[in-house]
Amino acid sequence: MLALGAALNTLVSQSRALTAQAAAKFHRELQPAAFHIAVWLHALGPAKPSTVAQAIGMDRSAASRLVGDLVRLGLVATSIDPSDRRSTILSLTAAGRRRMEAAMRAKGAAFQQRVASWSEEDLALCASLLRRLIDAPANADVE
């Protein structure tokens, strides 16, 4: 069990490092946390700032500051929410989408390089075991 925990911690650390590299490719002036906002918008489309902040587990004020940076750099646009004219909607701009696609291609290529020598069976087994781990009920409290 300890070996599994150590391996998962290493995997998470390496994933964070790859994400930091992708964030730098997305835009060097941004904090990596801003990249998480852009990734969410890329994956799920336009949304209210509060929805994005909650979905990625970020404080609203921190998200607001990062969104301001994304808007200032022309990577995210804001528009009035047609269903509630007091609210705004965030969306990636064309420049934001282009940069996101380049960042995700680079991240994908780095990941692909790590598993290039794996057989299809190994890839399928790894995916299956990870899916089992992800789908397992998590009912232990962490102190």
SSE layout and pairing:
Blueprint: H1 2-26, H2 32-44, H3 49-55, H4 60-72, E1 76-80, E2 88-92, H5 94-115, H6 120-135
Antiparallel strand pairs: 1-2
Fraction of residues in helices?
55-70%
| CATH homologous superfamily caption | Winged helix-like DNA-binding domain superfamily/Winged helix DNA-binding domain
The DSSP helix count reads 6
Based on CA inertia axes, which overall geometry fits?
A: globular
Q: What does it look like?
A:
67% of the residues lie in helices and 7% in strands. It is mainly alpha-helical. The chain has a single domain (12-135), classed as Winged helix-like DNA-binding domain superfamily/Winged helix DNA-binding domain (Arc Repressor Mutant, subunit A), CATH 1.10.10. The protein has a two-stranded antiparallel ribbon. The longest helix is centred in the N-terminal third of the chain and has 25 residues, at 2-26. It is globular and about 50 Å long. The relative contact order is 0.11. The model has no long low-confidence stretch (mean pLDDT 93).
